[in-house]
Each structure stands twice: as C-alpha cells, then as structure tokens.
Amino acid sequence: MTHSKANTNNKINVSQNYKLKNYDTFKKCKNRTICYNSNNSVRFTAFTEMEKYSHFFILIFNIPSSNFSQFGGGDGLTEATAFKIYTKAHLEELADSAVWNMNPNFTTGKYFKLMNDITDTVTIPIPYFMGTFDGQNYTVSMNIYIGPVNRIGLFRVIINSTVKNLRVTGLSRGGSYVGSIVGQAETSHILNCHSSVFIKFNMSSAGGIAGRCSGSVIANCSNTGTIEQIGIGSHYPSATINGMVGGIVGFVLDSSVVLNCFNAGLIKGTPSLGGALSNYGGIVGRGPGNFSNNVNVGVVIGGENVGCIVGETVGGNAVLENNYYDKQMCVCCEE
What we know:
Blueprint: E1 14-19, H1 23-27, E2 35-36, E3 41-46, E4 55-64, E5 83-85, H2 88-97, E6 111-114, E7 118-122, E8 126-129, E9 132-144, E10 155-159, E11 162-174, E12 182-186, E13 189-191, E14 194-195, E15 198-201, E16 205-207, E17 210-214, E18 217-219, E19 222-223, E20 227-229, E21 244-246, E22 249-253, E23 256-259, E24 262-263, E25 267-268, E26 279-281, E27 284-286, E28 289-292, E29 295-296, E30 300-301, E31 305-307, E32 310-312, E33 319-321, E34 324-325, E35 330-331
Parallel strand pairs: 5-6, 6-9, 7-9, 8-10, 9-11, 10-12, 11-13, 11-14, 11-15, 12-17, 13-18, 14-19, 15-20, 16-21, 17-22, 18-23, 19-24, 20-25, 21-26, 22-27, 23-28, 24-29, 25-30, 26-31, 27-32, 28-33, 29-34, 30-35
Antiparallel strand pairs: 1-4, 2-3, 3-4
C-alpha cells in the first residue's frame, strides 16, 4: 500500500502498526461510522483483529468535516442555518460528535433543530452539549439506560446551553441525576419542554425534566411521567441513599429558577438509607432558588421531607410565590 503524506490537499494519512496502548481511545468509535477529532476533522477508523494482537493496522483519514454533509443539512453557525435533525441516526451522530474527551468543542455555540418526530427509539444519550437545541415542538421517543451511572437523560450534561420546544416520551434510567431532557444542567436554559418519560433511579437525584441544575432556568415545562426510586440491589450495597426528587428537577444548586411549570406525574420514593434525609417535591426536590407560578397535581410519596412544591428549601434565600397544589396529594410514606 502506498503511504500518502497529509498535506493541505487533504491527502490520506495512513498510520501503521498502532500500539494497543491506544486501544481505549479508539474503541469508543469501534461501532461508529464517524468520529471527530478536537480540530473538528472527521476520523474514519478501520480495525483488524485488535483484540487478538499486540499491534494492529489502522487507517486514520484526517479530512476537514466541512467536506462532509453533517446531519440532515445546515452548518450550525446560526439559528437560521442550524444543523437539521431528522432521524435517530442524526441524534446518534450528535452523540458521537459530542464526546467530551474526544471533541469537547464541537457543539459550542452551534445550533440544532429537530425537523420531525423521531419514533425510532433513541437509546444513546448525547453526552455533552454546549449549544442551542430547538425541538420545534416535535417528540423524541427514548429508552436510555447505559447502566447504573450518573447524569442520564436525552442529554447527559448541558453547559451554557439552551434546550427548548422539545417533547420526550419513553424511559430514562440511571443512578443519580436522572432526568428526561437532561441529567445535569449548568448555567443553561430549558424552555417549553414536556415529558411523559418514565424515570427510574437508584441513588439520589431525579427530576421529570432535569435530574440536577445549577445556575439555570427551567420555564414553561411540564411532566406527566412517573418518577420512581427503584431498589439499589448489588450496585450500591452500602451506599448512602438520600432521594432528592422533583416533578420538574430533583436537586438545585446556585439559586436556579423554576417558573411556570406543571407536574401531574406520580413521584414515588423510599425512606433514606445511611442517615441522610430524603427530599421529595411536586416541582423541586431540594435546593435554593426562585420557584414560582408552578402547579403540582401529581401524587408525591416520599421519605422524610415531602412538599407539594419543594421537598426542602436550603440557603435561606428561596422564593416560593403563586404556586398551586393539593396538600392531600403529598404524603410522607407509602402505607
């Protein structure tokens, strides 16, 4: 085989005899067609018997990603030219492109638009997102479970992001920080998002929209899905389990805002283990912030601290105004 040197003409760069010590880096792309390098170039990988030999032959093609049509169109640079998401495969491409340790900046400042309902069930979460995702009021069917790990949702972690106008249905299951839209939101906005997802968790924090948020705004969102704490089993045999569970968000840090939200989903928890107190609320499980103009009509069955709006407020600066609920819907413990 002729080896062509990489140059400004984007000729193929072939590397031979790549050592197995780099296997962990490449196995993440083993079942994927396309992966991205930190310089946004497309990396195609071809493996031959890597598990059987101490050395293997690998081809790496470094070609600028601008030479390829990504997703269903668009360039992602503006809202008007947002990347278009039509299919489950496009969401999986986004998941592949947004792996933190391989391509942390791919989504930064980029725009994405969902162009239709996705009924082909999505099973791979988007690991790390720093852009704007507009669902345009379409629905994504999901079944997210990758083991008893933390930060689970359609998006695992969003930072400095906006996710809006998105509907989700199906299942989201994990350890802690489990949500439907996002597992963990940092300094982000989640707007006009609606979930009927069944959420199962077996450690601490879970919410109908977000498992955990910090310095973020969640507004005009709703949840009708059940949120249930399931048995910890053998994964956490001696763990401290203190549920922080809310119909919209489980655990709030840094005075986030939850505004104009609605919960009708059942919230079903268990008493805490290991000495910590559980906090179950119809809107927010635990935290400081502004939680106003919200409505809860869902049944809340929890452990020690149960509230129809907030399980427990902390920090002394929580604001609760114009919230509506039926106190009979909120009970300490299931009989």
